[in-house]
Design goal:
5 strands; HIT family, subunit A; alpha+beta; binds zinc ion; binds guanosine-5'-monophosphate; 5-stranded antiparallel β-sheet
Length: 114
């Protein structure tokens, strides 16, 4: 997807503070962090949202969740607790239509979320 911001980050055409690279996923710090740990975990392959990722049914969703946990361990929030968020659709706040997991932690996380 030539006009996709996160495809450009995956291709290293747009700089990002990368914290993890795996064969199929990339994790980088959110440019506008909402918590002490706020990392975006994306598949290298372009899928519009979590539903499309799951529908691909090729193990990529599993890899993405594993990468989220690896990031949480690296960031030191796996023990205290962290949240994985997939905003799906504009009404839920999705602004970049390349599926990404927000990994949030390092502070108390209110429930229910806003
Ligand atoms: P969404 O709103 O789609 O769930 O999440 C998109 C996220 O991408 C937002 O939290 C936003 O701060 C982040 N973001 C937008 N542009 C950039 C960028 O150029 N670099 C990085 N690292 N994050 C970005
Ligand atoms: Zn993309």
């Amino acid at each position: 997807m030539s006009d996709c911001l996160f495809c450009k980050i995956v291709a290293k055409e747009v700089p990002a503070d990368i914290v993890l690279e795996t064969g199929r996923a990339l994790a980088f710090r959110d440019i506008n962090p909402q918590a002490p740990t706020h990392v975006l975990v994306v598949p290298r392959a372009h899928h519009e949202n979590a539903a499309a990722l799951a529908a691909a049914d090729d193990g990529l969703a599993d890899d993405l969740l594993k990468a989220c946990h690896t990031v949480a361990v690296q960031e030191g929030v796996a023990e205290s607790g962290y949240r994985i968020v997939f905003n799906t659709g504009e009404g839920a706040g999705q602004t970049v239509f390349h599926v990404h997991a927000h990994v949030l932690g390092g502070r108390g996380l209110a429930w229910p979320p806003g």
